[in-house]
Amino acid sequence: ALNTVTVYLCRMIVADGEGATKLLECIVNGAADDQNAKMVAKSIVCSSLLKAAMFGADANWGRVLCAIGYSKANVDIHKVDVSFASAKGTVVVCKNGAGVPFSEEKAKEILLEKEIILHVTLRDGEGSATAWGCDLTYDYVKINGDYRS
Predict the structure, then answer these.
(1) Interval 127-144: pLDDT, tens
(2) CB of 73 closer than 8 Å to CB of 44
(3) Cα separation of 139 and 120, whole Å?
(4) CB 15 within 8 A of CB 23
(5) N or C: which end of the chain has fewer CB within 10 A?
(6) Domains of the chain
(7) Is the Cβ–Cβ distance between 74 and 40 less than 8 Å?
């Protein structure tokens, strides 16, 4: 019960971020261990490039792989699979570290939703983790660009 409440509160806090329009949930499976999965998930949801791509409803899987690359996790990028999901469906955009053909129209429909799930499979072990973040919007830049301490 405590975990359920904690997850609910985490999601609410993230969704209420300055200027946020989308809640991002990154689910990482198949990591060498839970620590590596956590490093990957956090790196992805903290990536400014990924956050901006999600704001623009751009299924840029390269942003995901880039964030994995600088996560310092032990990952074989050639084993990575990536998909985006929302209430509108799921689209696989990357298999074995390379792009796969997908419908840009369907991807945009999925990424225009307010809640987006990024599924990342590393195929290196049994480790898993989930992290939450939000998109990076014009409003976020405006709010923080005008901020005075």
Answers:
(1) 999 999 999 999 988 888
(2) no
(3) 28
(4) yes
(5) C
(6) 2-145 (3.10.20.340)
(7) no
